[in-house]
Write a structure and sequence with these properties.
This protein has about 200 residues and is α+β, with helices and mostly antiparallel strands. Helix content is about 30%, strand content about 30%. It has one domain: Immunoglobulin-like. The chain is elongated. The structure holds 2-acetamido-2-deoxy-beta-D-glucopyranose (2 copies). One 2-acetamido-2-deoxy-beta-D-glucopyranose binds next to loops.
Length: about 200
C-alpha cells in the first residue's frame, strides 16, 4: 500500500519534471532578441512579388552570457489577432508545440548575436492576412529558449498585410477570359455581317 503510493508520487514527480523540461511555453520566454522587418505599419505586400528585409540581434541590455545556450534562430511570419478571429486553425496557444500563430517559416540559421540580415521574398503560397514577424532562439535540442518580434506584446503595432496571389490572379484571369470571349464573338459577328453584305450586294 505504502509502496504504491510512493510509486505514484515518484511517477507524478517524474512526469512533472519531463513536462517542465519539454513543453516550452511562450509565456516563459524572455524577449532578448531585437527583430525588425522592412514593411511599414499598414503596408500591403504582394505574395510572390514583394520582399521583406529582416534584421535581428541580441538586446545587449541583458547580462552577457544569456545567449550561451542559443544555437540557432528561426524566423516566422505570424498571424495578427485580427486574422485569427473565428479561425481556430490559427489560434494562439501558450504551449508552443500547439501554437498556430506562426505558421510560415521564413528561415532557420545558426545563431550569431549581431549583424544578421536577410531578405525574403514573400512566398506565393502565403495567404492574404495581417501579419507580424517573430524570431525564436533555439537551443541544441531545437527547443525555443527566447524570442523577439516586430510588434508589441499585444500584437497591435507594426502590422502589415499580405495580398494573396490567388485572389488577384483569379480575378485577372476571369477578366481576360471574358475579354477574349467578347473579342472572338465580335470578330465572328463582323465576319458574318461582312459576308452577308457581300452576298446581298451581288
Ligand atoms: C525582390 O527580390 C528579388 C530577388 O532579389 C528581385 O528580383 C525583385 O525585384 C524584388 N522585388 C521587389 C518588389 O523589390
Ligand atoms: C532591450 O531590453 C530592455 C529590457 O527588457 C528593454 O527595455 C528595451 O526596450 C530593449 N531594447 C530594444 C531595442 O528592444
Amino acid at each position: 500500500m505504502r509502496s504504491s503510493a510512493a510509486c505514484l508520487v515518484v511517477s507524478l514527480w517524474i512526469s512533472c519534471l519531463l513536462g517542465s523540461t519539454y513543453a516550452a511555453t511562450f509565456s516563459s520566454l524572455h524577449r532578448t532578441l531585437i527583430l525588425t522587418a522592412s514593411p511599414k505599419a499598414g503596408q500591403v505586400l504582394k505574395a510572390g512579388e514583394d520582399n521583406i528585409t529582416l534584421t535581428w540581434s541580441l538586446n545587449t541590455t541583458f547580462a552577457s552570457g544569456i545567449d550561451s545556450t542559443y544555437k540557432s534562430v528561426t524566423v516566422k511570419l505570424c498571424y495578427a489577432p485580427i486574422s485569427q478571429k473565428d479561425r481556430g486553425w490559427r489560434k494562439t496557444v501558450d504551449e508552443l508545440a500547439k501554437d498556430k500563430t506562426c505558421q510560415h517559416k521564413i528561415l532557420t540559421k545558426p545563431y550569431t548575436s549581431s549583424n544578421n540580415t536577410f531578405t525574403w521574398s514573400v512566398r506565393r503560397d502565403v495567404p492574404g492576412a495581417t501579419y507580424f514577424v517573430r524570431a525564436y532562439a533555439l537551443d541544441s535540442a531545437a527547443k525555443e529558449v527566447a524570442f523577439g518580434q516586430t510588434t508589441d506584446s499585444h500584437k497591435t503595432t507594426n502590422l502589415f498585410e499580405v495580398e494573396a496571389v490567388t485572389g488577384r490572379h483569379v480575378s485577372l484571369d476571369i477578366a481576360s477570359v471574358c475579354f477574349s470571349a467578347f473579342s472572338i464573338v465580335s470578330l465572328l459577328g463582323f465576319f458574318f455581317m461582312e459576308k452577308r453584305k457581300a452576298k446581298s450586294s451581288k
